Amino acid sequence: MLTNPNLKSIYAEALFYFIDYLLYLPHELTKQLTKDLSINIEKEAKHMLYSEKIKEAPTLAEYFKTVREEGFEKGIEKGIEKGKMEEKRNLAAELLREGFSVEKVAKMVKLSLDEVKEIEKICE
Length: 124
Fold this sequence. Notes:
Order of helices and strands: HHHHH
Shape: rod-shaped
Structural class: mainly alpha
């Protein structure tokens, strides 16, 4: 539309003056706007600080998720320990069937004498 670069800058400058004219507020209204904005900015700042505090505290769902994950991890650990113990007990039973003494089995498998004696009763 405008091909002359000098005219483009003149029109752009005129447009900016016109926009400034449209946005011009009388001095009294400028003071009121500044006052209202500062009140709203303070309210918003307080709200943002409160929101940040809320973000630090976990929601109930996040809390349950964390508890569930911790419980799951503990369950896995217990399962592994239970599996190890079961393996020890099976090994002890096998050694007892092979004729090893209760004392020798307890020492080899690292179970208490009472536990090995209990396994021996089950194996008989």
